[in-house]
C-alpha cells in the first residue's frame, strides 16, 4: 500500500511508547519516528512511558525530550506497572486525535506507520492494526516455541471469540483517540491480554478495524518481558471475554 500522502491536515498523531529497559533502542526509534512524521508532513508527538527502568532508559529519554523538543514527552512511573496501564497513563498526556501504540524494540518498525495512516484515511477505519498473520505479514527471529505460542494464542482466541481480526495479540495499532478512550473505559484487561480484549471489544461495539501487514522482527537489544504467567492470564482473559459477550 502506498504511504500516506504529505498532508497539511490538522490531524495530530500521538505515539505512546511504553519502555522498560530500552536504553539502547530508544534513541534510534525516536530518530526514525521523527524522520517518518517529518517526511509525511504530519503533526506528531512521542510519549515515552517508562516504568523506572534500572538500565537508565529515563536518563536517555530526558535527553531526547530536549533534543526533539517539543515533540517528545517523558511520562515516567516509579515501578514496573505493566504494559496496559502504561498506555492508559500515556493517553492522559496525549494531545493527538489519533493514537499510535507500538513497542520500542523495533519489532514494530516506524516505516509501517505511513501505511497505517493511509489505510485509515482510505477506509475511514476506527482502528488500524498491524498484522503478522495476513498478506505479506510475518514474524522473524523468534524460536519455534514463541512462534507457536503467538500463533496458538491467535487461533485460540479466534476459535472461541470469532472477532474476524487476523492478529489479535499484536499491539502495533493506530486508533482514533475517542475510540481508544471508549475502549479503555469498557475493557478491564490491562496485561498482555489487553490487545486481544481491545480488538474483540471494538468489534462487538461495531468499530471498524483495518489491517496492514507488518514484518515483526524480534528485538536485538534487551529481553522480552513476556513469561508463562502472562500466557496463563491470556487464556483466562479469552474465556472471560467469551463468558461476558
Ligand atoms: N512502561 C512499561 N513498558 C513495558 C512493560 N513491559 C514491557 N514494556 C515495553 O513494552 C514493549 C513490548 O515489550 P516486550 O517485552 O518487547 O514484548 P514482546 O514479548 O516482544 O511482546 C510483544 O508482542 C506481543 C505479541 O506477540 C504483544 O502481545 C505484546 O504487546 C508486545 O507487542 C517494549 O517497548 C517494552 O519495553 C512495563 O511493565 N511497563
Ligand atoms: Mg518485543
UniProtKB/TrEMBL annotation:
Its cofactor is Mg(2+); Mn(2+); Ca(2+). It comes from the Eukaryota. Residues 14-184 form the Glycosyltransferase 2-like domain. InterPro entries: DPM1-like, Glyco_trans_2-like, Nucleotide-diphossugar_trans. Its main location: endoplasmic reticulum. It catalyses: a di-trans,poly-cis-dolichyl phosphate + GDP-alpha-D-mannose = a di-trans,poly-cis-dolichyl beta-D-mannosyl phosphate + GDP. GO terms for biological process: alcohol metabolic process; dolichol-linked oligosaccharide biosynthetic process; GPI anchor biosynthetic process; isoprenoid metabolic process; protein O-linked glycosylation via mannose. Its EC number is 2.4.1.83. Coiled coil: none annotated. It is found in: Endoplasmic reticulum. The keyword ATP-binding does not apply. GO terms for cellular component: endoplasmic reticulum membrane. One of its GO terms (molecular function) is dolichyl-phosphate beta-D-mannosyltransferase activity. It is an enzyme of class 2 (transferase). Pathway: Protein modification; protein glycosylation. Keywords: Endoplasmic reticulum, Glycosyltransferase, Magnesium, Manganese, Metal-binding, Transferase. The keyword Magnesium applies. SUPFAM superfamilies: Nucleotide-diphospho-sugar transferases. Belongs to the glycosyltransferase 2 family. Transfers mannose from GDP-mannose to dolichol monophosphate to form dolichol phosphate mannose (Dol-P-Man) which is the mannosyl donor in pathways leading to N-glycosylation, glycosyl phosphatidylinositol membrane anchoring, and O-mannosylation of proteins. Component of the dolichol-phosphate mannose (DPM) synthase complex. This is Dolichol-phosphate mannosyltransferase subunit 1. It comes from Trichocladium antarcticum. The lineage of its organism: Eukaryota, Fungi, Dikarya, Ascomycota, Pezizomycotina.
Amino acid at each position: 500500500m502506498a504511504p500516506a500522502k504529505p498532508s497539511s491536515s490538522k490531524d495530530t498523531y500521538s505515539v505512546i511508547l511504553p519502555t522498560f529497559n530500552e536504553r539502547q533502542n530508544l534513541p534510534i526509534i525516536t530518530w526514525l519516528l521523527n524522520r517518518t512524521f517529518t517526511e509525511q508532513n504530519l503533526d506528531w508527538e512521542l510519549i515515552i512511558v517508562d516504568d523506572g527502568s534500572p538500565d537508565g532508559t529515563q536518563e536517555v529519554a530526558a535527553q531526547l525530550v530536549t533534543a526533539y523538543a517539543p515533540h517528545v514527552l517523558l511520562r515516567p512511573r516509579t515501578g514496573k506497572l505493566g504494559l496496559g496501564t502504561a498506555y492508559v497513563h500515556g493517553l492522559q498526556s496525549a494531545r493527538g486525535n489519533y493514537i499510535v501504540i507500538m513497542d520500542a524494540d523495533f519489532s514494530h518498525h516506524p516505516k509501517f506507520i505511513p501505511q497505517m495512516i493511509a489505510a485509515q484515511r482510505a477506509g475511514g477505519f476506527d482502528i488500524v492494526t498491524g498484522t503478522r498473520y495476513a498478506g505479506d505479514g510475518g514474524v522473524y527471529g523468534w524460536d519455534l516455541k514463541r512462534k507457536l505460542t503467538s500463533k496458538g494464542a491467535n487461533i485460540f482466541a479466534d476459535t472461541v471469540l470469532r472477532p474476524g481480526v487476523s492478529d489479535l495479540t499484536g499491539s502495533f495499532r493506530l486508533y482514533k483517540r475517542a475510540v481508544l478512550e471508549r475502549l479503555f473505559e469498557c475493557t478491564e484487561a490491562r496485561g498482555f491480554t489487553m490487545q486481544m480484549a481491545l480488538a474483540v471489544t471494538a468489534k462487538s461495539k461495531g468499530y471498524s478495524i483495518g489491517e496492514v501487514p507488518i514484518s515483526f522482527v524480534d528485538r536485538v537489544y534487551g529481553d522480552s518481558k513476556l513469561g508463562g504467567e502472562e500466557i496463563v492470564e491470556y487464556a483466562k482473559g479469552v474465556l472471560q471475554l467469551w463468558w461476558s459477550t
